[in-house]
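On clarity, I found the account of how folds are encoded harder to follow than it need be. Since the whole study asks how a given chain folds, the encoding of that fold should be made plain. The format is easy to grasp once an entry is in front of the reader. For illustration, here is how one protein appears when written out as sequence plus structure tokens.
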Amino acid sequence: MTRDTGDPRAQLSRDLELVAAHTELLLRTARSMTDPGAASLCEGWTRGHVASHVARNAEAIGRLADWAVSGTPQEMYPGGPQARDRAIDEGAGRSVDELAADVAATADELEPRLRALGGPLAAERVEMRGGFAVSSLQLPFLRLRELVYHHVDLDAGFGFGDVDADLLRRFVDDAVSRLGLGHHPPDLRLTSDEGDTWTVGKGTTTVTGSRWGLLLWLARRVPDGVRAPDGLPPLPRGA
């Protein structure tokens, strides 16, 4: 079971296990890719860009974990968005073996830094890029989200339908929560085929589909199997 029970420390332990499991799943797919230059589900990115980003994200999450433990603030991506994007671009054109090795090595370096969050923390909250503050104990979940979403983005045989049902529901919970934080959130009532309901804004437009279909639409604007009586409404960028 992966549902959040409300105990942050217990959830941290479970999320660390899920991070390890989904790292291995992503690596299995990455190592089997035959064309890292093929388009991914991330607009403007190849599969190589996605793999390069997953590796750089491991380093970024590691910096935030170090901040949480030491109390010394660190930039998630030193040099800001331009430096982040440049590092991803520079790594995108490598071979499958080089990309997979980078993902594996950075994941190995991140693992003990995330586990250290189970001990005393000097900073209960840290800042992601853009100055968005999060609980330090949430960092493993944020890494997990990156792993699963970008595994799907590789478009190489793994989809949200392959994700454990409880974890999938957590991801939809999270996506709906982030959608509602925008300046002009859409008015949506999301109903899953599995019996879940989520509301954003006034909930005036009903969108129905499987959990995985709803998440694919929310996360990547891909309307695979989701439906609305008068057509799907537009979603704001970046939500």
The first helix runs from residue 8 to 32. DSSP finds seven helices and five strands in the chain. The chain has two domains: 8-158, 166-220.
